[in-house]
Amino acid sequence: MPGLAQLREIAAECPGFQARATARAITRFFNTRFRPLDLTAEQFSLLIGIETVQGTTVADLAAESGVDATTLVRNVQNLEKRKLVRGTGRGRAGKRLELTKTGRRLLEEAVPLWQQAYAELTVALGETRLRSANRAMRAVAAASMP
Prior knowledge:
Strand order of the largest sheet: 1-2
Order of helices and strands: HHHHHEEHH
Strand content: 5-15%
CATH topology: Arc Repressor Mutant, subunit A
Shape: globular
CATH architecture: Orthogonal Bundle
CATH class: Mainly Alpha
Number of helices: 7
Number of domains: 1
Largest sheet: 2 strands, antiparallel
Oligomer: single chain
């Protein structure tokens, strides 16, 4: 069994461990900012993904985001129940998705909240560090692809 010091080092240096911890922290940060709209960071990301790629499918979104399609199906269903998204076509993963008028209005209300949250992160980290962190996250993701 590895010693406690080695395990602590792994926890501090493992990109996977750090990525999950960072993702949870960022998600909590944005969830707090979107709370007045009864919106989560994940839902915001889905609304952005659906609106920016007209006619996208759950399978497309899953491939783009690296999230399991089954998980996305549940999240899309929640958005459909709220009348924010509608799907057309066949099959869960093959449905073409689009925002409803209500979904577009919510996205319009959410973008200024996102901008304010991004500005807060920029102040906390500095613009150079925040851009560098984003580039580093993209590079780690790309290097981790099979």
